[in-house]
């Protein structure tokens, strides 16, 4: 079979209706628009509701501003690090455990307690998280 042998399925295509081409064509005289009124005479804008307040103006507007250049971090808390790791922690190991998405930059936050010394490498740390890691005898290293 070749590309030029392909045809639409039987009955799936229809001829275009030619409106207003005389009574014999079946869509003559009013051409399917009924009689009188705006629908017979004009072609109003999409969304026009006959003078009623249109839907796109009735619905409240979205407030605020979304910064398209925002730098989103995958967030990990100190308690999570204490639960899953001993020794070294880096974004690749976090991704291997399914705690962060591998393409996201990682930020460590201070929720929870840390009772073991960890060497944590991440893209950002909150001040409180850095203090907790160092207080437990570990180090917080910022990577690229």
Explained architecture:
- The chain is α/β, with parallel strands linked by helices.
- It has helices at 38-41, 55-58, 78-84, 91-96, 127-135; strands at residues 73-77, 87-89, 105-109, 118-122, 124-125, 139-142.
- A three-stranded parallel beta sheet has the order 1-3-5. Strands 2-4-6 form a three-stranded parallel beta sheet.
- It starts with 37 loop residues before the first helix and ends with a strand.
- The model has no long low-confidence stretch (mean pLDDT 92).
Element layout with pairings:
Layout: H1 38-41, H2 55-58, E1 73-77, H3 78-84, E2 87-89, H4 91-96, E3 105-109, E4 118-122, E5 124-125, H5 127-135, E6 139-142
Parallel strand pairs: 1-3, 2-4, 3-5, 4-6
Number of helices: 5
- Helix content bin: 10-25%
Mean pLDDT across the residues is: 92
Poorly predicted tracts of residues: none
Radius of gyration: 33 Å
How would a crystallographer describe the biggest sheet? 3 strands, parallel
- Report the portion of residues in β strands: 15-25%
Which of globular, elongated, flat, extended, rod-shaped describes the shape?
A: elongated
Give the class from helix and strand content and strand pairing.
alpha/beta
Which strand order spans the largest sheet, edge to edge or round the barrel?
1-3-5
- Helix-strand topology string: HHEHEHEEEHE
* DSSP summary, beta strand count: 6
Q: How far apart, in Å, are the first and last alpha carbons?
A: 56 Å
């Amino acid at each position: 079979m070749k590309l030029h042998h392909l045809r639409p399925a039987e009955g799936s295509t229809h001829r275009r209706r030619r409106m207003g081409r005389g009574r014999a064509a079946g869509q003559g005289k009013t051409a399917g628009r009924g009689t009188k009124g705006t629908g017979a005479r004009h072609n109003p804008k999409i969304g026009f509701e006959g003078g009623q307040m249109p839907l796109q103006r009735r619905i409240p507007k979205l407030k605020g501003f979304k910064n398209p250049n925002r730098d989103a971090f995958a967030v990990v808390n100190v308690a999570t690090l204490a639960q899953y790791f001993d020794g070294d922690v880096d974004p690749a190991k976090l991704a291997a455990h399914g705690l962060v998405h591998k393409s996201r930059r990682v930020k460590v936050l201070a929720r929870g307690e840390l009772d073991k010394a960890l060497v944590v490498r991440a893209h950002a740390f909150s001040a409180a998280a850095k203090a907790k890691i160092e207080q437990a005898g570990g180090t917080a290293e910022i990577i690229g």
